[in-house]
Amino acid sequence: MTTKSGTTLLDGGMGRELNRMGAPFRQPEWSALALLEGPDFVRRAHAAFIKAGAEIITTKSYAVVPYHIGDARFAARGQELADLAGRLARQAATESGKMVLVAGSLPPLFGSYRPDLFNAAQAQGLLEPLITGLKPHVDLWLAETQSALEEARQVAKGLKGDTKPLWLSFTLHDENPDPTTPRLRSGETVIEAASLAHELGVTALLFNCSQPEVMGNAIDAARAELKRLGANIKVGCYANAFPPRNEDEEANGTLSDIRTDLDPRGYLAFAQDWQKRGADIIGGCCGIGPEHIAALKEKLS
After folding, report:
1. Are 58 and 144 in contact, with CB atoms under 8 Å apart?
2. Residue 253's pLDDT is what?
3. Which pLDDT tens digit goes with each residue over 120-131?
C-alpha cells in the first residue's frame, strides 16, 4: 500500500480537521469531545482523509486520556471511548471501498511535549483500557508524539504478546535545535531512539508533531543508525503546521495559530525533501488537512 514512488501516505491532523468541520471541540476535552458528543464528525473526518489519498488512518483516541477527559470519566468510559474511536475508523475504511489500514493511536499519557510529567508507575493502568478498546479494530499500533524513550518502552510493555506491528513516533526538540544531533523533547538523541526501535522490534520509526524544518535531519540520523544496526525498519515523519512551542508551556494548553507558509504547496516542498532523504512514510500532524494530503498524493507519486 504505497504510492508508485514507494512512499506510504498517512492522514493528517484529525483534531484540527474536526474543529474546522464544526465538531464539538473545547478545552479540556479537545478532540475527545467529538467522540462524546458528535461521533459522526469523526467518521466524516476519516472519510475526508481517505478521499484525499491517505492509505493509513489513525484512530481518534489521542485525547482519550485523563489529562483531557478527567480521571473519573476515563475510569468509567476510557475503554468504551477507545472502542468507539476504533470502530469509527474501521467504518470509514470499510465504507471507502479502498485498501486502507487503521492505526491505533496510543498517545502521550500525561500531556504532549512534557516528558517531565511522565509517570511510569501509572502508565500501564492508562494503556490497558486504550489497548483493550482499540485492539479489535486496528491493523497496527502507532505510539505517537512520544517525548522520551521511557514512554515508548512502556507502550511496548503494554503490548507484550500482541502480534500487530508497532510503529513508534517521537516528537522532536524544535526550539533552537542542534542540526548535528537531532534530539527528542527529553534531550535524548534520535540515534538513541533508533537503537531502541531496533531493540523493541518495531516495524517503523517516525517523527511527528514538530516543525517540518527539523524532520530532515532526524530522518538522516535515524536511517544512518538503523543501517549501522542492520535493522529493517521503515522511517518517516508527519510534521505539524504551527510555530515552535516553548517546552515549559502547559501541555496542550492552547490552540496554536497555523503558519501561513505551510499551505499544501509549502508543506509539499518539505515532503518532497523527506522523500528524497529516504522517508518511507509521510503524512501530517496538527494543522495538516485533507487538502495537504491530496497534494502529497498527487505529487509524491
Report:
1. yes
2. 55
3. 999 999 999 999
